[in-house]
Amino acid sequence: xxxxxxxxxxxxxxxxxxxxxxxxxxxxxxxxxxxxxxxxxxxxxxxxxxxxxxxxxxxxxxxxxxxxxxxxxxxxxxxxxxxxxxxxxxxxxxxxxxxxxxxxxxxxxxxxxxxxxxxxxxxxxxxxxxxxxxxxxxxxxxxxxxxxxxxxxxxxxxxxxxxxxxxxxxxxxxxxxxxxxxxxxxxxxxxxxxxxxxxxxxxxxxxxxxxxxxxxxxxxx
Length: 221
Ligand SMILES: CC(C)(COP(=O)(O)OP(=O)(O)OC[C@H]1O[C@@H](n2cnc3c(N)ncnc32)[C@H](O)[C@@H]1OP(=O)(O)O)[C@@H](O)C(=O)NCCC(=O)NCCS
Description:
Strand content: 15-25%
Low-confidence stretches: none
Number of domains: 1
Bound molecules: coenzyme A
Number of strands: 9
Radius of gyration: 18 Å
């Protein structure tokens, strides 16, 4: 991966990034996927941060990409804090587990830090992000809008101690609620792919229904 380049996404990358996103997510969390359509619509959304859209390029081919959106935290007393959210982040299946995702995330986290944000918050699989310093919302006193602590609500603290005591509620951009009725029509722009069921979808379904309790003594296995 010596020749890997991490660079800002340009307009010329748009279709390649959406095709790559489709390859990376296809059948992983649901039969088919909607992340390529999400990338397509998020570029026009007010919460999208164009300057933080980055790609990983190898020998002229786009093999990874990351996107960011504005999000916020609100306290019980109505105080608001601006936060950043990333996603989708993906690497082409041929190039996964070779450090590309780590490079994309590491590079852009530094840019977010330079912009003065104190927290990056996203929904994702803890297996992918704990190694990069993310912890669950419960660990940082951050809940979802309902006041619950999903396992997949992940927080990277860029500046420690800025939230103080009390629970803050996280609100992501509404761009992530894609209109699912439009996905199949959009998908027709790409080469046909079979939708199928696989065990990773059941794992994802459990992850979405898993919540983190308050700290308590760990029982050895
Ligand atoms: C999740 C994803 C973005 C991670 O990107 P990646 O390039 O595969 O990630 P990295 O290679 O940087 O790190 C992943 C693993 O590879 C390991 N790794 C890093 N460099 C490596 C190398 N040179 N050789 C072997 N393994 C390596 C890391 O230690 C890590 O291992 P671990 O998971 O056992 O701790 C990518 O796998 C992906 O696109 N998945 C499908 C889409 C998806 O789920 N996106 C995230 C939504 S939450």
